[in-house]
Amino acid sequence: MTNNKKAIVVGAGAGGLSAAVRLAHQGWDVTVLEKEAAPGGRLGAIEEAGYTFDIGPTIMMMDDVFRDFFAEVGRNIDDYLELVRLNPLYRLNYQDGTVMALPSDMKALLDEIRRINPDDVDGYLQFLSQIHSRYMAARKKFIEKPLNKLEEFLTLDTLTGMVQLKTLNNMYSDISRFIKDERLRIALTFQSIYLGISPFDAPSIYTIIAYVEHGVSGVWYPKGGMNAIGKALVRLLGEFGGKLRLNADVQSIVIEGGRARGVRLANGEELRADVVISNVDFPTSMETLIAPEHRGKYTPQKLESMTNSCGALMLYLGVNRRYENLDVHNIYFTRDYKETLDQIFEQDALPDDPAIYLYSPTRIDPSVAPQDKELIYVLVPVPNLSSGIDWETELPRFREKVIAKLERADLPDLRQHIEFEKIYTPHTFKQRFNLFQGAAFGLAPTLLQSGYFRPHISSDDVENLYFVGASVHPGGGVPVVMTCGKLAADLILKENGAPAVQWPKPAV
Ligand SMILES: Cc1cc2nc3c(=O)[nH]c(=O)nc-3n(C[C@H](O)[C@H](O)[C@H](O)COP(=O)(O)OP(=O)(O)OC[C@H]3O[C@@H](n4cnc5c(N)ncnc54)[C@H](O)[C@@H]3O)c2cc1C
């Protein structure tokens, strides 16, 4: 199927690629322009010295979103990705010595909760019994709807959906209604860090993440790492005739007569198209790609006033031995959960006691590291660049603190075994991917930056201009960003007079 409509997508992240694949599948002439030498953005990889590190995402959940995405463009996901369901989901390490390996089997999970605090089993089941309807309301009435226009937001369906979300309190206080034990409260709320927001600030609806991990979808691992998903999207794009240009740094979006007409590259080249989709982090798109008179309400003051997610300090380590006691996903909590989070989110300071997420896929996927060696990915939540932290001065001391904590925990003598190391600070995320304030997860999903109140997929001010990505509705995380790409493509098809597409029914 072909038509003569042209789309330019700026950025080959999860959002840009998914919109591009869907439009290319519908016969559009699609060109994706990526400033880096490799596609994927945060979903990309560092492939060096025999190691394949995921740059950002490592936890795959909502597998149905990925399966449906492939099925709807007539492909079987299993021909592109080898997906493994993880059991346990992750290993949680508390400072009091408690270790919990959360099983994917419900009975075993209840037994694990009983081992920690028998009184909380009933509370956990009550949490489950009320969360499903909230999860369904979130997905059907918010995540899977574009919510571009006030009239779409002010429908009875959406308004009743808001009531069903029951999200006026924060995650931690919501979970505390059901659960008494602090370790279990932590286990059910730390997931807000996936979105770069403190569980003491995150709307309580995000307790659905624990529900999704524990029950609805489980946690999955694509062989090769999450970056295999980015590679699969690039493959799909090619199969549908879409083009990907790397090292193509877009300098501005060309707007004439109130309509997006194309883009101008840093080398001066101008490309024209019927629609432009920016996958560049939304605040950066506004700040750098769009002339001030077309930014509408997104003035520099407005952008500065928005709440961004935290940053991430990343250590990508190649280690010349194996640490057999690790699981794929490991978390090392701190002496005082709230104090650590307040230091990062309230005081804009590096935490005294860093919380650490460690990912070690080597044990289930030897392909990501040289033989007998281990890939260790370390993520430490830190403030974003608005904190003014001087990373040049702070990095050596803070890195030392992180390594020392890991050595005390599961990785004795780690520093002696590091044969490869790469570090990303919030500056790296800003420089490589143009993330506003180096905020690793984009705009924070506060209540006032969610749904209709989050930046819209379709520009409010410029015709034929669209935005996709973590800082745009419906929000961050790979499956949600891919949903954004789908919503954008579907809007474009509709607004360009295409008859409603009968996407094939997903096979699974
Ligand atoms: C450390 C970390 C861990 C994470 N963990 C998880 C996880 O476990 N699970 C999960 O689901 N999600 C996770 N996420 C979130 C997830 O990575 C993001 O929500 C998602 O990948 C964002 O995709 P995107 O399309 O918004 O943009 P990006 O990945 O930011 O892609 C945007 C692309 O645009 C390009 N670009 C920017 N400016 C220009 C320009 N001027 N010209 C051309 N190209 C340009 C960039 O180089 C980039 O390739 C994590 C994120 C981070 C940083």
From TrEMBL:
Designated name of the protein: Phytoene desaturase
Superkingdom of this protein's organism: Bacteria
InterPro entries for the chain: Amino_oxidase, Carotenoid/retinoid_OxRdtase, FAD/NAD-bd_sf
UniProt keyword annotation of Oxidoreductase present: yes
All residue ranges annotated as the Amine oxidase domain in the record: 15-493
Native source species: Heliomicrobium gestii (Heliobacterium gestii)
Lineage start: Bacteria, Bacillati, Bacillota, Clostridia, Eubacteriales
Gene: crtI
Pathway the protein takes part in: Carotenoid biosynthesis
Molecular-function GO term, any one: oxidoreductase activity
Coiled coil location: none
